[in-house]
Amino acid sequence: MSRWLFDLGNTRLKLAPLHADGSLGAVHAITHGQVGLEQALAPLLPARAQSACVASVSSADRTLALLQALGSRFASISLARSTASCAGVRNGYLEPGQLGIDRFLALLAARQLGAGPWLVAGVGTALTGDLLDAHGRHRGGMIAPSPASMRMGLHQAATHLPLAGGQATGFADNTLDALASGCEWAALGQLQRSHARASQLLGSEPGLLLHGGGAGGLAASLPLARLVPDLVLLGLARWARLGSSDPSL
User: Fold this and answer.
1) From the candidates 7, 102, 130, 230, which is the catalytic residue?
2) Which one of 8, 15, 78, 155 counts the least CB within 10 Å of its CB?
3) Distance of CA 184 to CAs 47, 123, 127, 181, Å?
4) pTM of the predicted model over 0.85
């Protein structure tokens, strides 16, 4: 495989080869801190390849470390950026570059999946929701803490509250289940309210796309949602083929 895609988030790195027909090869995920980056990438990547496309919402230090690790393997590396328009999507932000690249790429992928309209929800460090109408116009978005970030915030404020554990059962009879229920229900309430507001704004119900590491935990409670775990990589594939205008790094 001569072209590879890299989605660098705050928790993990996802990567996949890009086939000549625009489809993704096998997707691999590397959790930050499990092993050294070079050691983790070595068995997955060819010794030499044509190009790498990188999308990063992680820190500058972590992004630089990835670019350095890829530099000896790839003839060219491009860094995806949010622009005013790309691949049939018009960015709704007043300053297009402020829209997180993961959110922008997810919109590109949503547009490729169908005309929509779509409410595109990412569940990672943050819970995000972006509305894309049937004409490819991004109508804006929202950002809130994800269930995992809610738990972390509660733990930081009150260390006796555990970071993880429990089942989202509703009105719980123990602290662990109460924490899991409250954080999950808060996220579900945000998504349901966003979907209702989107339906009012558009005059029709948008489809709901879920992606991100925490999306699977919410999908079971959202029967109309479509779970697309690799939505950002799919959008990056589209950017690499149609929207890449940045010079190689």
Assistant:
1) 102
2) 155
3) 43, 11, 11, 5
4) yes
Average pLDDT on 11-35 reads 92
Q: Sort 159 into a burial class: Cβ within 10 Å, 0-12 / 13-18 / 19+.
A: exposed
Distance CA 166, CA 161 (A): 12
- Which residue do the tokens 């995992």 mark? 148
Alpha helices, DSSP H, located in 72-174: 101-113, 147-157
Name the architecture of domain 3-79: 2-Layer Sandwich (3.30)
Q: Which of 159, 183, 182 is nearest to 171 (CA)?
A: 182
* 91 three-state secondary structure: coil
According to CATH, where is 3.30.420.40 located in the chain? 3-79, 102-229
Mean pLDDT, to the nearest integer, of 86-90? 95
- Residue 24 and residue 8 in contact, taking contact as beta carbons nearer than 8 Å: no
The string of pLDDT tens digits covering residues 185-230 is 999 999 999 999 999 999 999 999 999 999 999 999 999 899 999 9
Asked whether the predicted pLDDT for residue 244 surpasses 80, the reply is: no
pLDDT score for 25: 95
Contact 69, 37 (CB under 8 A): yes
Is 102 considered catalytic here?
Answer: yes
Homologous superfamily of 102-229 = ATPase, nucleotide binding domain (3.30.420.40)
